[in-house]
Write a structure and sequence with these properties.
It is built from 9 helices and 10 strands. By secondary structure, the chain is of the alpha/beta class. Strands 1-4-5-6-8-7 form a 6-stranded mixed β-sheet, covered by helices on one side. The mean pLDDT is 94.
């Protein structure tokens, strides 16, 4: 396991995940950070730079120019290893598995050798200290990089990941994760688990805005990211990525709910 320690960070920290090849969303986020005076060294990405949307190589190039800390996501690991799928662990022939085939193949064609070498060097965990807290950043989990953890996951599942992280790198006050794409914050014993959300795809809540987080003296706050989602959809369709995630940018709902716990599926959310 590759660890990178950022030392002590002073000032607000911007937390984000899942750019998902959505270049317009990433550029909007960078502009948000500039507007509030957060430099690249205090912008931390939980991985999956490349996924559903159209501009994979451009998104990676933008992140590399920015120079912010990035944890390796499963998509980066798979592309670095020239793997044939995204590594999310979807069951064969499920809708998620079928849909992932199209966007992963598109990304695989777009990402060149230099970017794959860069992805291979990304850390599996980032650590830092902030306002007296010790924080760890992972993608999905330590037991599985593609571990889906949700706001409604059993406490024992999240505790297992916390225990594994602490066995690797010592005690932490906060863990910041990604992968599942929907932001949440939960206190598990003495540790706060935060999912920073994803900037490249809506949070399956009927809104076109995506999400990111900030960490300051008072803790974590989540924010909406407004960007040109219509232009991002047009780019996907021009690239032949019209299997459902293009529509998700406009409707705010994912094309498949197979991976979601029942409590987070559309019927439950709209009823609530």
């Amino acid at each position: 396991m590759e660890l990178r320690d950022l030392g002590v960070l002073s000032g607000p920290v911007l937390l984000f995940g899942g750019p998902y090849s959505n270049l317009l969303a990433l550029r909007a986020l960078i502009e948000e950070a500039r507007n509030v005076g957060i430099p690249a060294e205090r912008m931390i990405c939980t991985g999956d730079l490349v996924a559903y949307c159209a501009q994979a190589s451009e998104t990676v190039s933008e992140i590399r120019r920015l120079g912010c800390p990035v944890v390796a996501g499963n998509c980066e690991k798979q592309l670095a290893n020239h793997a044939m799928n995204c590594g999310c662990g979807f069951e064969k022939d499920t809708q998620c598995d079928v849909l992932s085939g199209a966007w992963y193949a598109h990304a695989d064609r777009a990402i060149g050798a230099a970017d794959r070498r860069w992805m291979a060097g990304l850390p599996d965990m980032i650590t830092f200290q902030h306002a007296g807290r010790r924080c760890a950043v992972v993608h999905g989990g330590i037991s599985d990089i593609s571990r889906f953890l949700w706001s409604v996951s059993p406490e024992a599942e999240i505790q297992k990941e916390i225990d594994l992280i602490q066995s690797v790198a010592g005690p932490f006050d906060m863990v910041i994760g990604g992968h599942s794409g929907i932001p949440f914050q939960r206190d598990i014993g003495d540790v706060t688990w935060v999912n920073a959300g994803a900037i490249g795809m809506p949070a399956h809540d009927g809104r076109t805005e995506t999400r990111f987080g900030t960490l300051d003296l008072s803790g974590v706050a989540f924010h909406d990211l407004i960007y040109d989602h219509s232009a991002a959809k047009d780019a996907m369709q021009a690239a032949g990525l019209s299997q459902g995630y293009d529509a998700a940018l406009m409707t705010g709902y994912w094309p498949s709910e197979e991976v979601l716990p029942p409590a987070l599926r559309r019927a439950a959310v709209t009823k609530g």
